[in-house]
Amino acid sequence: MSVSDPRRISDVGALKALAHPLRLRLYYALAIRGSATATRLAEQVGESTALVSYHLRALAKHGYVELDPQPRGEDGRERWWRPATTGVVWSPSDFPDGPAEAAATTDAQRQLDAHRAAYLQEWLDSQHEWSRGWQAAAISTDTPLLRMTPAELEEFGVQYAALVRHWHERLGSAVDDSDREQVMVILHAFPFRP
Fold it and tell me: Are 82 and 56 in contact (CB under 8 A)?
């Protein structure tokens, strides 16, 4: 998979497909692993291979995952799946106005945030098990003091995406992985009134 911008979602059906709890787990598992068979993913998430295969096909239908064209396994017939994108992004303004669309985007955001919160909780519960270096490097912050226009917030998002792309490219060429761990970065930027 080449480094690219996150996939922009503007179809309610595609958003609902991703917001399914098991599909989110599979999507993140593939994003972390790079590629895997349905059988290996089933073992990881504790579900049957048939159920995992069904949900992988649903994710593939909407362009989140794809079959890896590289033949693998003893006979080269194993089906390996990989992420089809480096991430996803959407805005409520990407969808038609209407109560069904509003409910779908809100539900999807809640599902994704709950999934991300589980990763954060896992870190909080286990941070004492990590080295001092990892504990010192981990970041948890919010910045409620920025005052922006919608255009400035959009520019901020574009710059953030460029920063992530820069790090994907830089780390993609890294030779020594001995000290590297998978890192979750979560960013929410939205207007609020205290």
Answer: no
Q: Are 11 and 19 in contact (CB under 8 A)?
A: no
Helix-, strand-, coil-residue percentages of the chain, each rounded to 5:
55, 5, 40
Token digits of residue 79 = 């089906």
Cα separations (Å) of 129 from 8, 117, 125, 157, 194? Answer: 36, 19, 9, 33, 36
What phi and psi, each to the nearest 5 degrees, are found at residue 26?
Answer: -70, -45
Q: Phi first, then psi: what are they for 3, rounded to 5°?
A: -70, 130
5 vs 169: CA distance, rounded Å? 12
d(C-alpha 115, C-alpha 32), whole Å: 14
Q: How far apart are CA 12 and CA 99, in angstroms?
A: 12
Q: Please, where are the H alpha helices in 62-194?
A: 99-126, 132-137, 150-172
Q: To 10 degrees, the CA torsion angle through 152, 154, 159, 163?
A: 140
**CB-CB contact of 185 with 164 (8 Å):** yes
pTM: 0.76
Query: DSSP state, 127?
Result: G
pLDDT in tens, 47-90: 999 999 999 999 999 999 999 887 676 666 678 999 998 888 88
CB neighbour class for 182 (10 Å; exposed up to 12, middle 13-18, buried from 19): exposed
